[in-house]
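Weekend entry, working from home. Most of the wet-lab plans are on hold until the incubator is repaired, so I used the time to fold the two sequences that have been sitting in the queue since the last round of cloning. Logging both here for the record. First:
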Amino acid sequence: MAWPLPPGMRERDLGTALFPTATKGRDTAFSEPDFAALHGELKLKGMIKLLQGEEYRETHPNDGYSYAHFCHLFAEWQGKQKRSMRQVGVPVPSMQKMPLSNSP
């Protein structure tokens, strides 16, 4: 490649000339994490998403997502889940009737 650039060269052509491998798609298929299992593990004491991401990368060193993309995909998965708020009702003993007057 010579300077100055040829008059008809566009930025995309320049990028292809300088970085020929960057335009090729990645041939590797990524290994999808089991987000449902990961979600259940997060409820365990001491388990954090960082540990899960590290374990995922150790299990899938060549076909795994980066930690940032792992977290992004996990957040997307969580957003698609049905929301529910489980509440356990505990009966309260009835209060005794108290007089409403302030007189002694």
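Second, folded right after the first finished:
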Amino acid sequence: MESGRGVVAAGDFAAAKGKVTELLHREATDRDTLSYVSHPKVFAEFAAFQARHADVSVIPTDVFFHGMEKGEETSVEIEPGRRWW
């Protein structure tokens, strides 16, 4: 594969995937690697956040960004068919 603007050489992609695997402490997917290649600083910050707080993608968006009021309840699907209240 030819390297140029918007194109990542196969060897470079493999090296990037190795770096992402280290950042995530798990095997990186191609999607993870493409995100890293596109935005390395942002992805590294995301990986560090996820290492500190785990996978927050299961938290409803409004709760994540705005929090909850005292007495308010929400539920989170922790795996298919299992919800945490």
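Plan for Monday: verify the second prediction. The two ends are 50 Å apart (CA to CA).
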